[in-house]
Write a structure and sequence with these properties.
Length: 85
């Protein structure tokens, strides 16, 4: 389940998708190495979860902006901006 926007700390909410994803990938590398102590691993996991939620929210927002394909009464295929509102 994705975290609510209010659950995402302000420092993460300001990040672009690319920066957040890069930070998330680094956290995964650190956790997979197994070198971090337990408390540090828990902190990394929590931040990673917040970064994941932020990335998911950014992707959903981008998806909402993608054009949708339409089919007219005459059978012509076209596109129109997705209604975001």
């Amino acid at each position: 389940m994705a975290a609510k926007k209010a659950d995402i700390p302000a420092d993460i909410a300001k990040l672009s998708f690319e920066v957040a994803l890069s930070q998330l990938e680094e956290i995964v590398r650190q956790l997979e190495s197994g070198e971090a102590e337990l408390e540090k691993s828990i902190d990394l996991y929590e931040r990673g979860n917040q970064l994941k939620a932020h990335c998911e929210a950014r992707l959903q927002a981008a998806q909402a902006k993608v054009e949708k394909i339409t089919l007219s009464a005459s059978g012509d295929v076209g596109t129109e901006p997705a209604n975001i509102e």
